[in-house]
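Here is the promised in-class demo. Please do not try to memorize the tokens; focus on the logic of going from shape to residues.
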């Protein structure tokens, strides 16, 4: 029987920190993450500036995701920016910031517009964003018609969210 040799985290970390390839890869990853963060903050700056003009100051849109929009005017600004062509991360933050039952029926048209962009992937959206939109429709789409749900269900682009769309349809019937 072969006996396993266990290592402490400190030992593994010390070994990795001696490896030039590992160190270089870590520096490259850190630089990419920092660059992506700066690009994201730059892209959402017009939204933050518009929110600031009504007295709502946030470091980034994700501040709203687990919080609450402070005013109906802030919700209107978020909704107006959903029609614009932002990256998946900014679009995701916009959607999640109004993904609350109190906004039921408020953003359905915008969600369907984003979901209907063809082809979805060519807009730079990652597959998870489609799930975010489906969940937002489930939570806030009280005004979506069964006909619209059926159109979304039969669209091949939406095959990965059909189960959520079926739940929405079932709730409506």
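The designed amino acids, position by position:
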């Amino acid at each position: 029987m072969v006996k396993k040799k266990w290592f402490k985290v400190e030992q593994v970390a010390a070994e990795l920190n001696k490896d030039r390839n590992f160190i270089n890869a870590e520096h490259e990853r850190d630089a990419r993450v920092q660059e992506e963060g700066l690009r994201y903050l730059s892209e959402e700056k017009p939204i933050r500036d518009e929110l600031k003009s009504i007295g709502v100051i946030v470091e980034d849109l994700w501040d709203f995701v687990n919080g609450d929009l402070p005013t109906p005017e802030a919700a209107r600004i978020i909704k107006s920016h959903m029609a614009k062509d932002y990256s998946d991360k900014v679009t995701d933050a916009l959607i999640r910031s109004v993904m609350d039952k109190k906004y039921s029926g408020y953003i359905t048209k915008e969600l369907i517009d984003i979901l209907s962009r063809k082809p979805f992937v060519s807009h730079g959206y990652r597959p998870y964003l489609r799930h975010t939109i489906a969940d937002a429709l489930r939570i806030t789409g009280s005004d979506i018609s069964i006909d619209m749900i059926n159109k979304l269900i039969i669209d091949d682009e939406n095959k990965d969210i059909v189960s959520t769309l079926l739940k929405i349809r079932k709730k409506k019937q």
